Amino acid sequence: MWKEFKEFALSGNLVEIGVGLVMALALAALITSLVENVLMPIIGAITGGAGESIADLWTVTANGSTIMFGAFVSAFITFLTVAAAVYFFIVKPYRAYQARTAEPEEDAGPSEVDLLTQIRDSLATAR
């Protein structure tokens, strides 16, 4: 059982998935920092919160409950930015690489109907 698990854990696909996960988490942390520390203060300044993050804006406190619309907007912008970065820097180049390295499909040869037609014709001429 250990040998099978070791073969599975060290197979190429699982290692590639692990590397991809680590890279995606690092990219997500980088983009989260970019959005929270660079973009959101700019958006906050534009929307009237001079130098404040957008997450600090649009916070409503009612009856002891706090609803933070700004934090949600910040998380949503972070998500969109991460999704765009993953698509344009990982998915799109990978698809282009696959298209360049894909082997052309081999000719499948005659279909079953074509072969049966040839056999029929050769039997008809043999008579």
Defining key terms:
127 residues; 2 strands; mainly alpha; 4 helices; two-stranded antiparallel ribbon; elongated
CA-to-CA gap between the ends?
64 Å
Radius of gyration from CA coordinates: 29 Å
Q: What spatial order of strands do you see in the largest sheet?
A: 1-2
Low-confidence stretches: none
The secondary-structure element order is HHEEHH
Offer a quick outline of the entry.
With 127 residues, the protein is mainly alpha-helical. It has four helices and two strands, in the order H-H-E-E-H-H.
Structure description:
- The protein is mostly helical.
- Helix content is 72%, strand content 6%.
- It has a two-stranded antiparallel ribbon.
- A hairpin with a 2-residue loop joins strand 1 (59-62) and strand 2 (65-68).
- The radius of gyration is 29 Å and the shape is elongated.
Question: How would the blueprint of this fold be written?
Answer:
Elements: H1 2-9, H2 12-46, E1 59-62, E2 65-68, H3 69-101, H4 112-126
Antiparallel strand pairs: 1-2
Helix pairs in contact: 2-3
